[in-house]
Amino acid sequence: MADTIPFDDRDGSLWYDGRLVPWRDAKTHILTHGLHYASSVFEGERIYGGRIYKHEEHIQRLFESAQILGMQVPYTQQQIFDACYAAAKAQDIVDGYVRPVVFRGSEMMAVSAQHSKIHVGVAVWTWGSYFDPATKMKGIRMMVSDWRRPAPDTAPTKAKAAGLYMICTLSKHAAEAKGFADALMFDYRGYVAEATGANIFFIKDGTLFTPTPDCFLDGITRRAVMALAKVRQVPVIERHIEPKEMEGFEECFIVGTAAEVTPVSQIGPYNFQPGALTQTLMHDYMDDVHREKSVVRL
Questions:
Q1: How far apart are CA 165 and CA 93, in angstroms?
Q2: Which of 26, 49, 53, 247 is deepest in the core (most CB within 10 A)?
Q3: 7 domain residue, yes or no
């Protein structure tokens, strides 16, 4: 959902390079390397009832992504873990979205930037449903993107890197322009891959099917939903999925920190009926995100 308040003009504070600073003062220069050369990695997390869901896993992945891009984070994982909660507390937010980001600064402006400073920021803001709630329960409509997820020998596909989202933005803009909520992306071989910011699952005969994440992120929410399915003894099969197979699947949903668990009613020419198993996993996921006690003390 679109946010009506510009993100550079908000009240409160965020965490930037080791300390809380006024929101509007958290600025970088126009010649920041991360802006020109996409030397940036990030995480998207949600905070529910004062607890950041799967926070340890997200921070670990943030550091792994930075390492893949050759960036040495100048803080420990525990410091960034704590910084996210400090930023949430500074904003008095117990239910919202958490965005830690690591990027190269403006000391060098060229492809090579070995001596650029590594910056770290964490912002927290309120954010409701990623999709229109009225539409979400009926199942969102998706088109098929013209762009494909790249091969792992052409891009750092195991990193949650900013540059990998360029084609996601293009795909989602194209989908929205045609009245769809999102787009499905195939991978470089033509197999079903993922949505623009979420992993995808299909259901047939009580079994979950999901693409093998060998050229896109094995999402943290994806793994959480698979674990919840296994608790209910629902079989989960990871394998390459041909586009034509979508005709035979009964249900479909996408998962991600922003999307949570969202039913899908259409992907291009293929239609699905959100059913009982999708609804069950939606409820199980929401129960899981609220299961632990609050960590933030406001």
A1: 27
A2: 53
A3: no
Specify whether 68 is located in the same domain as 107: yes
What's the number of domains the chain is made of?
Answer: 2
Q: How far is CA 223 from CA 162, 210, 227, 228, in A?
A: 22, 11, 6, 9
Residue 294 lies in a domain: no
252, β-bridge pairs: 202
Query: Which SS3 state, helix, strand or coil, does residue 66 take?
Result: helix
CA nearest neighbour of 237 among 212, 256, 265: 212
In this structure, is the dihedral angle defined by the CA atoms of residues 40, 45, 47 and 53, taken in order, positive or negative?
A: negative
Residue 298 domain flag: no
- How far, in Å, CA of 266 to CA of 257, rounded? 21
Residues forming the active site:
160
The encoded tokens of residue 137 equal: 């329960």
pTM: 0.93
Domain boundary pick from 103, 125, 147:
125
Q: What is the pLDDT of residues 171-219, one digit of tens each?
A: 999 999 999 999 999 999 999 999 999 999 999 999 999 999 999 999 9
Q: Give strand pairing partners of 42.
A: 101
Per residue in 25-56, pLDDT (tens digit) is: 999 999 999 999 999 999 999 999 999 999 99
Q: Which domain holds residue 266?
A: 133-289
Q: Which residues pair with 22 in a beta bridge?
A: 13
